[in-house]
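Quick log. Single chain, no ligands specified.
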Amino acid sequence: MKSTLLAQLSSANDCFGRSTAALAEGVYTAAQQVAHAAQTIDWFMEGAFSPQGFDLDFEAQDRKVREVTSLADARARLSRAVENAQELVNSKSDEEWSQPLADGPIMGGQPRAAVFGGITDHTAHHRGALTVYSRLLGKTPPNPYIPID
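-> predicted structure:
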């Protein structure tokens, strides 16, 4: 058991190091963070049913996100991405969601439904970053787990 726990700690440390390695370079604005989260939901949905798997041209994707300057536009993109994903969920059968993803370095061979874990993890990651942004600006974001009336 200890080796498993140590491996998890090592993995968390490695991921954290990679995640923070680029901070000396140009970082995303709040709007770009939201736009990136939206783009990634679309990316997961497209990759789930693409025979070629996921689009790995991350530089092109990054260029598109860096064009976003409006937080309102970015939020609208996120809403559209979620709506499009919901439509895709409803348009496919359970059997189709159980089929394997295309081979490749991103979730290759896992059931298509595995992309939802990726979406949840990825959006949580950026939600956390945006919470830090808010707090650095002296704002207190609402608790994400309690709906706002």
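The mean pLDDT is 90.
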